[in-house]
Amino acid sequence: MAKVQGNLDGLNKLTKLLKEDYTLRVGILGSRARSQHDSESGVTNAELGVFHEFGTVKMPQRSFLWMPLVEKLNFNNPDMQGLKKVIWKQLFVKKAPEEFYRTLGAMALDAIEWAFQTNGGGMWRPLSTRTEKQFSKRRKKGLPQILTDTGKLRRSMSFKILKGGQG
Length: 167
Fold this sequence. Notes:
Layout lengths: L8 H11 L2 E7 L1 H5 L10 H10 L11 H7 L8 H12 L4 H21 L11 H8 L15 H4 L1 E7 L4
Antiparallel strand pairs: 1-2
Helix pairs in contact: 4-6, 5-6
């Protein structure tokens, strides 16, 4: 009877890495979430983000988080094919899960920035005439950029990697 031997150290290390509990959070986090967006309304960046992300009775939905993340970070998206290889290599070859999540977080912020730059890829409803007039005095000449009047919401985006079930 023949004996088969193999070294499974690499597989065991990979299995251990995959069992580590990592979470990537992307959005308006920490003190940026609690910061007031403007002194007139008293609304925080997080509250304003929820209003735009989901819409309100008076405001149409303008998703700057979910929509761009689904659109741009979809691994079936042809633009992702080269990047998919890079980030999977970090996880499986280099066995560096934190670097994997760091790269994924940076890609998520790029997708969110794309939404702000392109008015949601052209999918956000235009500003109402009333809103346009309200902000036209402060806005620079050129095409109106929705959700960028002060830039505070845009600058409040970040990501955080949590390890081991951290809150």
